[in-house]
């Protein structure tokens, strides 16, 4: 137990938590945008996966920032695909999302085999690049503040995105339109706002955020691509959206919570070797289920009071 506490209250563990949180945060913000518009994006998992492979392959031939943009573009493109089938062809958004996830799972394996010349499991043979860290030497001797140094550039962008999304949603008319379309679409439609257009762009933005999370995962958390490397993070992000009360700051807190438990699942196997590693790795998913149950109970209690 003391070994676990020592590991938890260490600089390394804090860095691990932020590293695990960053891709989850981007996916959660993407899920939040689409959810507020009334079009739940269950394809976050597939978007992250496609974006991860796109970023890795692009980084072989281009600078890291171009690879990140390519990953974001891949996620946004899948958002366009979802919008086309859901808004244009009137397909159920949940079924479309699962279709994207299935396509991404098999399609990335096929594309990986082409990119690597036959390897269907990993991109280890590709000389892909990584996202650089931002070091702050002037904070090295400062307690606590030195923890802010050495993180991915996308980690800083993720933190900034929380504030920018909050400002967009609650301080701009476009954010009001987005929330209005999700709450009661007849009202903004009567005011002349194009509901389908708002939902279209929300799905595109949702895919772009998920794409950035996939790029972070494949170019910083793990340098390279492996089959199904997202490992359910897109679905965890959906749980984080609900746990965060559909608010950007709540999404940040929820993503940090899930990042904490993911970091624990990384640290604990080395400290408790007698516990099966497979059992420890289920911790983030068990927390997701528990969070959804608590959210459902809380929502029912509020509904009963009203």
TrEMBL record:
* Transmembrane portions of the chain: 36-57, 64-87, 93-115, 153-170, 200-223, 235-259, 279-297
Which Gene Ontology terms of cellular component type are present? plasma membrane
Q: Which terms are listed as keywords in the entry?
A: Cell membrane, Membrane, Transmembrane, Transmembrane helix
Q: Which residue stretches, if any, does this entry annotate as coiled coil?
A: none
**Membrane association type:** Multi-pass membrane protein
InterPro entries cross-referenced by the UniProt entry: ABC_transp_permease
Q: Which domain of life is it from?
A: Bacteria
Q: Which Pfam families match?
A: BPD_transp_2
Q: Does the keyword tRNA processing apply?
A: no
Does Ion transport count among this protein's keywords? no
Provide the protein's localization: Cell membrane
Alphabetically, the GO molecular function entries are: transmembrane transporter activity
Which PANTHER family does the annotation name? GUANOSINE ABC TRANSPORTER PERMEASE PROTEIN NUPQ (PTHR43370:SF1), SUGAR ABC TRANSPORTER INTEGRAL MEMBRANE PROTEIN-RELATED (PTHR43370)
* Descriptive protein name: ABC transporter permease
Taxonomic lineage of this organism? Bacteria, Pseudomonadati, Pseudomonadota, Alphaproteobacteria, Rhodobacterales
């Amino acid at each position: 137990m003391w070994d676990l506490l020592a590991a938890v209250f260490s600089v390394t563990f804090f860095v691990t938590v932020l590293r695990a949180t960053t891709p989850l945060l981007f996916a959660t913000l993407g899920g939040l945008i689409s959810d507020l518009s009334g079009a739940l994006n269950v394809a976050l998992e597939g978007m992250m996966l496609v974006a991860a492979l796109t970023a890795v392959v692009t980084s072989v031939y281009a600078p890291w920032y171009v690879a990140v943009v390519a990953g974001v573009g891949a996620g946004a493109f899948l958002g366009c695909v979802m919008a086309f089938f859901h808004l244009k062809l009137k397909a159920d958004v949940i079924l479309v999302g699962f279709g994207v996830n299935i396509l991404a799972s098999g399609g990335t394996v096929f594309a990986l085999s082409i990119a690597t010349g036959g390897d269907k499991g990993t991109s280890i043979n590709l000389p892909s690049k990584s996202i650089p860290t931002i070091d702050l030497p002037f904070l090295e001797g400062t307690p606590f503040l030195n923890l802010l140094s050495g993180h991915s550039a996308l980690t800083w962008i993720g933190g900034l995105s929380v504030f920018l999304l909050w400002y967009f949603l609650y301080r701009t008319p476009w954010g009001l339109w987005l929330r209005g379309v999700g709450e009661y679409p007849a009202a903004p439609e009567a005011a002349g706002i194009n509901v389908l257009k708002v939902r279209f762009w929300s799905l595109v933005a949702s895919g772009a955020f998920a794409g950035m999370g996939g790029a972070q995962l494949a170019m910083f958390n793990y340098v390279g691509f492996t089959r199904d490397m997202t490992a359910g993070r897109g679905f965890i992000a959906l749980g984080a959206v609900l746990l965060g009360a559909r608010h950007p700051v709540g999404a940040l807190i929820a993503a940090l919570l899930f990042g904490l438990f993911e970091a624990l699942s990384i640290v604990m196997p080395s400290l408790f070797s007698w516990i099966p590693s497979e059992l420890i790795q289920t911790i983030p998913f068990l927390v997701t289920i528990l969070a959804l149950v608590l959210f459902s109970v809380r929502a029912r209690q509020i509904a009963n009071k009203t």
